[in-house]
Specification:
Radius of gyration: 19 Å
CATH architecture of the largest domain: 3-Layer(aba) Sandwich
Number of domains: 2
Shape: globular
CATH class of the largest domain: Alpha Beta
Strand content: 5-15%
Bound molecules: nicotinamide-adenine-dinucleotide
CATH superfamily of the largest domain: NAD(P)-binding Rossmann-like Domain
Structural class: alpha/beta
Length: 274
């Protein structure tokens, strides 16, 4: 499937494309001969990313578009869609990837929580609302990739707001794919990309982390198989360990343990011994 979607001449739209995983995805799409639209907050990072992607794209500047977009604003996504369709005429890949880590603890500032939800959850919904009807109407194979997080599945203590947004996104994307696959004639599918620890932004690379390109390798392979859940390891956490952690989190319910039992003093060591 990825051969027909991530294909020469087709169009990729990626939010949060100015750096990190989004930029790596934009570069990979350009290297495959796709036309690429990078959407991110206005600024030097977006401009530099556009130039870097245009250097890779066989069509150069003509096949790369950068659009200043705040994903938390539905009007921005509508304008982005209009610009993409006016310039390139279609969308094969919509990657809803922009996110913020502002948010914080359970009783943290509500303004930060709302911002986190508006970007990480509503930003994706805005992308789907603006693009998916047009992608379905194209009548060609197309995919929506929403970038989730293991934190939305195993809920580690620390940034409760971020975890909530990614848990909501997982649930939403599952329902989206259910609806798409039950829509007669629909050639659009949705996928949840779940990166591991990845060096992104302007952070220094640590040995335990993957590089964004490794996440994109897994994404391309996963789309090629038609996988919905596209789960990435990193240099510290294997896929086997992820499976154990995910099953343990579900086991908190089915085994009647307290929530987040991996971090509960009365259950210390149980997970490691399991
Ligand atoms: N890096 C990791 O370890 C990791 C792990 C799991 C999931 N993720 C997810 O991967 C995705 C990409 O993040 P990254 O790690 O590459 O981070 P990053 O900080 O390198 O990139 C995020 C991008 O999103 C943009 N952005 C933020 N708010 C925006 C808004 N309102 N509108 C438009 N763009 C906005 C930023 O400007 C930035 O360019 C995110 O969804 C993140 O939650 C990352």
């Amino acid at each position: 499937m990825s051969d027909r979607v991530l294909a020469q001449g087709r169009v990729a739209v990626i939010t949060g494309a100015a750096m990190g995983i989004g930029l790596a995805a934009a570069k990979r799409c350009a290297a495959r001969g796709m036309k690429v639209c990078l959407a991110d907050l206005a600024g030097e990072d977006l401009d530099a990313a556009r130039d870097a992607v245009a250097e890779i794209a066989p069509g150069g500047d003509a096949s790369v578009l950068a659009v200043a977009t705040d994903v938390s604003r539905s009007a921005d996504l509508e304008a982005l869609k209009n610009e993409v369709y006016a310039r390139f005429g279609e969308t094969a890949l919509l990657m809803n990837n922009a996110a913020t880590r502002t948010g914080g603890k359970v009783m943290g500032p509500r303004e930060d929580w709302r911002h986190c939800m508006n970007v990480n959850f509503w930003g994706v919904v805005n992308g789907v609302d603006a693009f998916v009807p047009a992608m379905m109407a194209q009548g060609t194979p197309a995919v929506v990739v929403n970038t989730g997080s293991k934190q939305g599945i195993t809920n580690p203590p620390g940034n409760a707001a971020y975890n909530v947004t990614k848990a909501a996104l997982k649930s939403y994307t599952e329902s989206l794919q259910h609806d798409l696959r039950n829509t007669p004639g629909c050639q659009v599918s949705a996928h949840l990309l779940i990166p591991g620890w990845t060096t992104t932004g302007k952070r220094e690379h640590k040995p335990g982390a993957w590089l964004p390109d490794q996440v994109i390798d897994v994404l391309v392979e996963g789309l090629g198989r038609g996988d919905f859940y596209i789960l990435c390891a990193d240099n510290e956490v294997t896929l086997e360990m992820d499976a154990k952690r995910i099953a343990w989190a579900a086991g908190d319910i089915t085994e009647n343990r307290p929530p987040l039992s991996r971090w509960h003093a009365d259950h210390a060591g149980e997970f490691d011994r399991a």
